[in-house]
Structures are given as C-alpha cells and as structure tokens.
C-alpha cells in the first residue's frame, strides 16, 4: 500500500478520504444539538485541504469524527466516512483503533497539553512506534530519535530523554508532529496546530508540516480559522459555518473571488499589510447558538446581502465553475449582486 | 497553572514533604511500629499466648516492661503481636479498598455511561456510617481475618472511589487523553499509562488518610468483640479485655489505646502532610 504511486493529477484519481453527508449531533440537557449538518468533503493523496470557520463552526467536531474520537455524548446521525474506498462505519472498534496513528493521524491544537506529562518524549514516541510496528525496543528508540531529528529539534537524543514540560511550545509541537507522522499516515489532520504558538514559530511549524507531508505523500486536512495560514498551506479550502459547509473552492479561487458572503467576511477581517489605513471589514454579530439556529440560511442574520428569501429557504451547496461550490442563493455573487458588492 | 508545571511540582512536593517535621516524625513512628510488629517474634522473649495465672495484672516494671494482662501474659508482647494483626487488617483492607475503589472511580470517569450507575452504588455505600457498615458486615460474615479485611476494605472503598473519579475526571479533560487515543492506544494502556499515571497523587493522599480510618475501624470491631476472637492478640480486643480491670490495672487498656491512638494519629499527620505538600493552590 505504502509503495502505491501517487497520481499527480489529483482531480483524476479517486479520493483517499471522503466525508459524505455527515451529520453529528450532541446530546445536551436542553436537547440534541446539531454540530455538523450534512457535511461533504473529499481529499486526494498529497493534497492539503483547509477547513476554515469561526469557533463553534464545527471544525473540531469534524476532525474528531474523522478520527473516530467523538465523545460518547455525540452521535453520528447520518453519513459515511470513506477511507481508500472502505466505509469506516463498517469497521469494529479494534479495526478503527488499528487505523489511528497508522493510516490516519492527528496533530492537536495545544502542544502544551497534548503530550502525556509523566512520560519522557522518547518513550511516548517509542510507545507510538511499537503500537503498530513490532520491533526491538532499541531499534524503536533509534527510530524515535530519527523522527525527532527530522522535525528539526536540536540535539534529539537529549530531547528524547526530556519530559514534555522541559520543552518549549514549539519543540513540543515538533515532537507531536514527529509522533503523528511516525508511521507515515496517508491522512493527517492538523487541528489548528499553530494557534498556541509564537508567530515566529508558527511559520516554522507550517513549513515543517508541509515539507514532511510532501515527503510522505500525506493528504492533510488543515483545520484553522486563520486565513493567512490557509493562503500559505492549502490547495483547496472548505468553509464551515455553524455546522454547515458554505463554500469549497481551490485556494487561489477562494482568495480572488469568494462565492459566499461569509467567506467574503472572513477575508475582509484579515489584516492587510499592503493596504494600511484602510478599514478592516469584520463580520457583524456572532456565531449563532447551535440550539437557536436561524431559519433558512444560517448566515442570514449577519449577512449584508440578506433578503427575505434567505430567512425562509435553506440554500443548498451548488456547483459553480472551476469546481467551486457555494451555499448561497446569490452565487455567483458578482453576477447577481454586482452593484452592491 | 499549566499542566507542565504541575509535573514540575512533583519534585517540589517531595522537597516540601521532607521539610515538614511532623511528616518526618509521623513516618518515623509508623515505620518503627511496623518494624517492631513484623519483628515481634525476634524482639520479645515471651510467648503472646502462654498464660501465667500467678503473674496476673502485674504493673509495669519487674521483667515485664509494660506489665502483664489478666492472663499473666507480657503486655508489650501482646501489643506487638496485636499491632501485627491490626496493621495487617489495616494495610490489606485499605489496599483492597483502594484497588476496588480506584478501579470503580477510574472506570466511572473513563466510561461516562457507567458513571451514574457506579456513583449511585457508591452513594448507597456512603450513606452508611463506616462503623455501622463495618459492624454489620463483620457480624454477617462472622469473625475471622478474611471477613475483617473484607469489611474494612469495603468501608474505605467508597471514599476512595469518589476521590479517584474526581481526579480522573479532571485528567479526562486533558488533550493528551485524546492524543493518546489518536495514536491508537488500546483502552487498558490509556487507563494505566495515561489516566492513572496522571490522576494518582490525590488518590494516594486520600488512601493514606484512609489507612488511619481502617486501623481505627479494625480496632473498634475488635473492641466490640466482632473482630478476631480471643486469644488472638489484636489491639482493639486487648483494650476491651483490659476494660474489666480498668481500676485494678489501668495499664492494660491504656497501653493498647495509646498505641492505637499513635498509629491513627501518625497516618492522619502523614496524609495531611502529603495533602499540603501536593496542594497546588499553595504553590
């Protein structure tokens, strides 16, 4: 499997992983709460897909659902996860666990809490190695040090003997990346891996994820709310809003002509260094409470273009040109609303 | 306080423990008593069960350091052998209770579906005063070392289960529990290497405090005659025997009671010191 050649034309090859009509709801004291509503996405080998959205948009639930790590209060209401053609719903718990860390891995948001504080870094890596590969312990140790070295950690032998609290945030994140990529998973989920880091370290970590991903041909689902990171990393972008997918497009298309007012808002809230003095265009209001979701299009109360229809009719995700899809009644925006926008 | 510094606090915990003189004293006393109890056959020339009617209720001194009891047996020897039994019940009982309670607590935190069922069962246990609970169990099971250990274990278990669940719940909320699952760790390794390894400090502290309760309960059951039957030496029953001669020979009950007091106090001091040293609020 690992030796399989990866097709360069991502558009032609079958997707490595796809999420089909996924709906996830949480049981709460005040009734069920729909965190993901009919989400579709697919990713091809070697591709980087950014999943973008504000806090509460369901990004993290999506990543946990993909990994099979949803808390017991969550239920998958509908939909399928397909990995390499296999439906993951058909697998039992043991088989699913066997995939974690080997076929799919995850990098977490908080490097300070994602490592077991009572275990040395090297031991955690060795544990991860031996879980999926039987080998002598000494060999596993050597491989752990190699993996740390590959992430650019200085003097990896020393760091392997360190406890997590003895490392800086950036180094911990490197260790976590080493751990996630140790079995060369074909699917990597990075859940806001740079949010907790210093700006200078952020760029290094992004480079590292990209380079290692390229080396191993890993498909990366990059979860973030930072459009700057998206521009840096992504081949394609999926925008989530309040549990629904509102737009997908190639990254370059998304930045030049977003086809959903929410995406437009996200881009407008990005600080622009080359347009100093011009006002930023933040999105007014906040993400709606999942328990009191607005009718029709979830975004209409905050949307500058909203019309009556938006409150009544839920817009489906419609295909536009160049593989773009948007869940706005008025897409393509420029043609429909040319004057206003 | 971040999690990383919590681990760094561990070294500090130990340093603070050693700086606490009460803790050193309590630990020293406990080790001394335990050692003396274990080495009882070597330390004393007397037989704890051989009676000597002519030497009944002798006051301290004159060959018998603590005097003799109503059967003319050397009291110090009886106390050493009694401490043996009482400490054994305390240790094994608490160990059994901690194992059971810890498992229940960790499982309740880990398997959230089991939580309410397990905790309601624990609530039922907790609603009995531990003396009453131990008494009825000992009465039901009949006298004997096994049933005593069982009774003591079951009465310290609910508290330990509660503490373990609380400690484990706060660890369950940590990201490393998810990241452990994300690398494909099986449940049993998550429970031991991740959950227990991080949640154990408060459990350990509470268990130390529970030792004191367990010893006290064992002695109480002995005193009330529900413990081991005479002539077996046991601190509680020695104190009870001496009660009949309280005015004639007060040394019998007094010595046994003081020994129980010292053991329980030492465990409590030790537990308090552990708690203070591990207290993350007072860093």
CATH architecture assignment of the largest domain in chain A:
3-Layer(aba) Sandwich
Oligomeric state of shown chains:
heterodimer
The helix-strand sequence of chain B is HHHHHHHHHHH
Please tell me how large the radius of gyration of chain B is: 22 Å
Q: What portion of residues of chain B is helical?
A: over 70%
Which chains share the greatest interface?
A-B, 35 and 26 residues
Could you say how many structural domains of chain A there are in total?
2
- Which percent band covers the strand fraction of chain B? under 5%
CATH topology of the largest domain in chain A: Rossmann fold
- What order do the strands of the largest sheet of chain A run in, or round the barrel if closed? 6-7-8-3-9-10-12-11
Proportion of β residues of chain A?
15-25%
Give me the number of helical elements of chain B.
11
The major beta sheet of chain B can be summarized as:
none
Layout of secondary structure:
The complex is a heterodimer of chains A (341) and B (283).
Chain A: E1 17-28, E2 31-43, E3 48-52, H1 59-67, E4 74-83, E5 86-87, H2 93-99, E6 104-107, H3 121-132, H4 137-150, H5 156-160, H6 169-181, E7 187-191, H7 199-216, E8 219-224, H8 227-233, E9 236-241, E10 244-250, H9 251-256, H10 261-268, H11 308-312, E11 318-319, E12 325-326, H12 333-337
Parallel strand pairs in A: 3-8, 3-9, 6-7, 7-8
Antiparallel strand pairs in A: 1-2, 1-4, 4-5, 9-10, 10-12, 11-12
Helix pairs in contact in A: 3-4, 4-6, 6-7
Chain B: H1 3-19, H2 21-38, H3 40-43, H4 75-110, H5 112-126, H6 130-141, H7 145-172, H8 175-182, H9 187-223, H10 235-243, H11 251-278
